[in-house]
Design brief:
- The chain is mostly beta strands.
- It has no helices and eleven strands.
- A hairpin with a 4-residue loop joins β7 and β8.
Amino acid sequence: VQLQASGGGLVQAGDSLRLSCVSSGRTFSNNGVGWFRQVPGKEREFVSAISWNGGSTLYADSVKGRFTISRDRAKNTVYLQMNSLKAEDTAIYYCAANRGSWGSRGASEYAYWGQGTQVTVSS
């Protein structure tokens, strides 16, 4: 499974962005998918995850109510809609496919990782 994350950019605080994660090669339609983010010098942080069928989602407390994860299995794509962005959301965002069918918070449970997309929020 190869993953490609896109949609990052430079925005102002309060703006919105939508990140996309597309799988190529073997589809990830039967895998849970997660989004993580990382700031240089800090550990990778869980953001959100979704189960294989979209029926179950998880969010970090820091993004709950502002971010929404969804997936379109027909398009092999998972989205992360980010609203009301804050300066502290600035990071490189990575998508990853879980080893199993459900989303989870632990990075070690994800087998496949995309290359990351930069999100920068100016205050």
